[in-house]
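My current task is to audit a protein record that another person submitted. My question to you is simply how this chain folds and whether the tokens agree. This is what I was given:
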Amino acid sequence: MSSNDAEKPLAASRRDFLTGALKLTSAGALAGWLPAERIMAARLTCSQPNNFPADIPLYKQSFKNWAGDIKVDDVWTCAPRSADEVVKVANWAKDNGYKVRARGMMHNWSPLTLAAGVSCPAVVLLDTTRYLTAMSVDASGPVAKVTAQAGITMEALLTGMEKAGLGVTAAPAPGDLTLGGVLAINGHGTAIPAKGERRLAGASYGSISNLVLSLTAVVYDKASGSYALRKFARNDPQIAPLLAHVGRSLIVEATLQAAPNQRLRCQSWFNIPYTEMFAAAGSGGRTFASYLDSAGRVEAIWFPFTSNPWLKVWTVTPNKPLFSRQTDKPFNYPFSDNLPDEVTDLANKILSLGDGKLTPAFGKAQFAAASAGLVATASWDLWGWSKNLLLYVKPTTLRVTANGYAVLTRRENVQRVLNEFVTFYQARVQAYQQQGRYPMNGPVEIRVTGLDDASEVALSGGVAPALSAIRPRPDHPEWNAAVWLDILTLPGTPYANQFYREIEQWIEANFNGSYAAVRPEWSKGWGYTDQAAWADSAMLQTTIPNAFRAGQPAAANWDAAKAALATYDPYRLFSSPLLDSLGL
């Protein structure tokens, strides 16, 4: 955060929160990260909404996002038991001046649901995780279909798919994400085809949104003058803005295509210098691009002030390699979920004491914990069904804030993108260090996916998700990959927003033209001023909308999506201050 005096009370409160959080993480106390508690009647401070449906229990609950920097007490909440009850609440909200927003696992950085610090908002949150969790599998056709309600977690969804012999090519690493939340922001993993790899029927190398065959949303019905359920098929152009709606709609159910499950081998490496891994395009050796060619599924986690990133490489491997450890469960990196005292103590000192000079030691401690943990748990070479290797982040891991961007380019240019980014990033880190400033104390995370290509949809005439960060550009059909760039730091770190702003402005300027283009990762931080994320009016009102206009037909660009969403929700029941700022 900014170091201005006006920002100090907020930064201090975040440091206090994080200090307690770090202690819980160090002790492995999952209870500290369970969904925010219900608030008893004696603690209520906000007036109860009038005329709320009597048959749907209403209660107060606090809202707290992943990083803990968006926390709102006393939010009216209900847990609808059916899609019909969701509709009932929506129509009540329309008639009573309230907004309605889905509240899944709150695993998000950007304030798409609630703005930080708001008091007694005229909002009712719908906790989808209690009842809207059913799923079913239909394997009767040439491509299997999985129908699931929006409140199911990704861990439960992938577990159910695994039991039916099904899986996905890639998925977000946390298991505690709801399907509805993932579809809202086109959640993704990391995967492109390895050289010579053939895509399985039902698979996609894009985001989870690209798997949708149909979905059911709560939309306004002009004839009846009320909100109702409406099912959209993937070959209906009107579904396009709903496939990654950024929270501007409310989805209750989706049917996804599914592929046969695959066994994967995940190998971890700590012995490749970043100068080799992210070398200039065309370089030999152990480059990131070389692993994309051999395996297709690669992730780099580069801790601050260390030389060798943690490289994960997933390879499709039907039979168990001799020296791999078989795993039959997800979350195989306990050293990431329960950090040693050395790491958490350094984090506490960096924030509570403002001792940024400890950041290099903190980065090295994170590296040591991960590299030693891989050895201690025999997790450097794992083999098992896809779910068990794709899910690896638990709620007890260190809470950080993050920015995020997707750089669209040709697969052959991925190495160039990474080299240019790393070169600039390192130069800025060193420049800040020379000033005694250490804004980035978390790792850089790099993933690569395909795009949300409608040709991968198992339905003739399927349309691309209009607002997906990795929607293809028809004017650049050669762009077939997306490089996801995320930089993490502890909430409240001085000069972080200023650093993020410099990175963002460089990314926008550098990856702009015939070689590449950039779009924001909706769930992360973007639109930076020197004081805050999601606050640069030019970015929110011009740059981002233009990124979804460029190269797109007028009938399916940002403006068309905005108009369609307004038709589906003319009362803006599902909007939020951030979405209002975007003009969406």
Notes: DSSP finds 15 helices and 21 strands in the chain.
